[in-house]
Amino acid sequence: MNHVPTEVCPLAGPSIRPLPRPKEGPVPIVVGVDAHKNTHTAVAVDAATGVEVDQIVVAARTKGHQRLVRWARRLDADRTFAVEDCRHVSGRLERDLIKLGERTRRVPPKLMAGARKAARTRGKSDPIDALAVARAALREPGLPEARLEGPERDLQMLVDYREKLVWRRTEDQSLLRWRVHDLDPDIEIPKGALDRKVQLDHLRERLLSMPPSVSIEICLDTLERIVTATAKVNELQRRIEALVRQLAPSMLALPGCGALTAAKIVGETAGVDRFSSEAKFAMHAGIAPLPVWSGDRTRFRLNRSGNRQLNTAIHRIAVTQIRMHQPAQQFMKRKLSEGKTKTEALRSLKRHIARKVFDTMTKDTIKTPTGLQPAAA
After folding, report:
1. Which pTM was predicted?
2. For residue 281, which of 11, 21, 34, 275 is within the disulfide window of CB 3.0 to 4.6 Å?
3. In terms of DSSP H, where are the helices of the chain?
């Protein structure tokens, strides 16, 4: 290995300076990191053999991340960090590594788990998991490279926050329906009525006209939570729609792709330029069918890995197109006439849509300037 003397790349203190990014291609070592809330365990392996070189445990703070980089740079001048994609516990580590000029790749937990099961080392520990992360990255050289957060991350957080608010509102709506039915079975609440302010105001008046009780008090309190959540959900949707029009205007022109679906795809993709081809994007979304044949029979099966949120968004587009988009309907008829089942034809349609989505986002990335900020509420 090409060892680097410590004095060549001193990293003392908070003013640590980034080194130039390594060249593309194979690297001498891969550093797998098993991230946790308070500590990160890293294991360096030889890229050629997969043999462990060294390991370290650092604090899950910026100083600990600097110590991790110093340790890795002493091992070899050319290296790649592979971090298990744990979102909330690995995000700060990724940002610090990227700022210091380190090549960083995200390893899905499913890949790490598979590498651990295939290893000869028995048991489970942080070093074993970190070693599995590194070996998974070696086995899958096409993993997308991590990058600093941008407007796509803001969009993803807005979409996630809105979905959680909708989920909590749905719980409150279910509770309110049963409470009202218990008070007066003759009060009919139409489907979807509790999403509309006019219907909520009318229900409030009905409740206030009844004799006071604890049940009435709970109903009114639940109703106010629904009103507040509905206002916030609508506000978030306006912000999301405005941001999607800035980041991916062409996505809205795709049949069956509304603003919320486009926002989900853009946010979960986290930069389409991370993928060198549409095939890698499809694999990341869990849409590329997996070959499972042996002998003379050629067969593919459903891909259950990948980003399931991204997969769900593209599935939503496919189902909508089958209902109202003539080219998609003709596509399904052609696949069915070829002897495919309805499920297999749907998988083929989703693969076709994934290709269209990738091309559309790539064009939008070229046209749209960087550094956009979220739209004001």
Report:
1. 0.72
2. 275
3. 62-75, 91-99, 109-118, 126-139, 151-183, 197-208, 214-247, 259-269, 278-284, 308-324, 326-337, 342-367
